[in-house]
Amino acid sequence: MKNNLARALKPYNVTHEQWPLLKWLWVEDGISQRELAERSYKDQPTITRILDKLEQRGLIRRQADSGDRRVSLIYLTKEGQEIEASLKPLARKALEHALRGLSEEERSQLTNLMNRISANID
User: Fold this and answer.
1) CB contact set of 17 (below 8 Å; sequence gap of 6+)
2) pTM value > 0.90
3) Confidence of residue 23 (pLDDT cuts 50, 70, 90)
4) Which domains does the chain have, with CATH numbers?
């Protein structure tokens, strides 16, 4: 699935590692780097590396938190906001491709199993 998503996002110069961070920022812009790490289950050095690439690409900007200058808040740029309309349908299509041939019941079972596995790991 990772490779399938990577192929779908490649024309937009976005990687499968960057995808979850963008998804979280589309939901809640201006969250901390630490919060992004927790939500995406990635460690701080990995998040820093991914955010560096997104910043170089012009999709995000970092801003020091006015309440705690040690904290970096991550905001989407205009381009980061606009790319959502192009990327979400591609990701949906990649997921549908991966799940084709599975009935609705099988998809539901898969979702339930994955949620249980994730809960066990947390």
Assistant:
1) 46, 50
2) no
3) very high
4) 2-121 (1.10.10.10)
